[in-house]
Amino acid sequence: MERGLRSYELRLFTDRLAAAASMAPLPAGANRILYVAEGTALIAVGGSFASLAPNSAWHGRGEVMIRAGAAGALLLRAELVAGGAAVRATGEEGVASRLSLTAPVSLDPGQACLMRCDRVDFPPGGVAYTHTHQGPGLRCLQSGRIRIETQGGRHEYGPGEAWFETGHDPVFAAASATVPSHFIRIIILPRALQGRSSIRYLLPEDQDKPKRQSYQVFIDAPIEL
Q1: What CATH topology corresponds to 6-107?
Q2: Quick check: 134 and 168 in contact, CB under 8 A?
Q3: Do 147 and 141 form a contact (C-beta atoms < 8 A)?
Q4: Which end of the chain has the lower number of beta carbons within 10 A, N or C?
């Protein structure tokens, strides 16, 4: 590991809560993003409350309590934690949580960083030409299908499946040819990119081609490591 870098883990959990079910408090200390894929959720941090509708997200670092709405909730929960940190066990009635993906990342605590959560939509036949990003991140497909080509391999993902991208390894992505596709992305970036795209297209012939994917940013928050 390079001098100045420390080991962290970027984890993605899928939490399914029955109607009005509550999770035990999630501890403070993790840089955490909650995205509501289905249903609604009430978030409580200290004396503050936030109500999240479908296709919305929350970010924080403090202890947080989550309660599902009357129709239940399906959440994607991303946490950036110190490498080797314990995974909290869950056993609450009406709550089913699973660790969908975990990936080691090396970050410099002295570097100003941000945590971004956004949604990337592709029309049928849409592609993301060979590109890199300026930081590591997780993706979780929500609809359609997508093929990811990187590091000499090719993998196809369906709804609910997640993958990790290093950021510096070139990636080519091809979405379903027949139906729209979209995924949720959580990525760690230099804070200088707040409000700006992180993508870099690598091939000169791709620079001016139409880019058919669209983006919806939910969280673009500075974090402390």
Answers
A1: Jelly Rolls (2.60.120)
A2: no
A3: no
A4: N
**Are 184 and 22 a contacting pair, CB within 8 Å?**
no
Count of residues making up the chain: 225
> CA 65, CA 26: separation in Å to the nearest integer?
6
Asked whether the beta carbons of 194 and 113 are under 8 A apart, the reply is no
Say which residue, 148 or 89, is predicted with more confidence: 148
Residue 46 has pLDDT above 60, yes or no: yes
pTM (2 decimals)? 0.95
Q: Which fold has domain 113-223?
A: Jelly Rolls (2.60.120)
The whole-angstrom separation of Cα 185 and Cα 137 is 7
Evaluate whether 10 touches 136 at the Cβ level (below 8 Å): yes
Largest CA distance in the chain: 54
Confidence of residue 2 (pLDDT cuts 50, 70, 90): low
Q: Where are the domains of the chain?
A: 6-107, 113-223
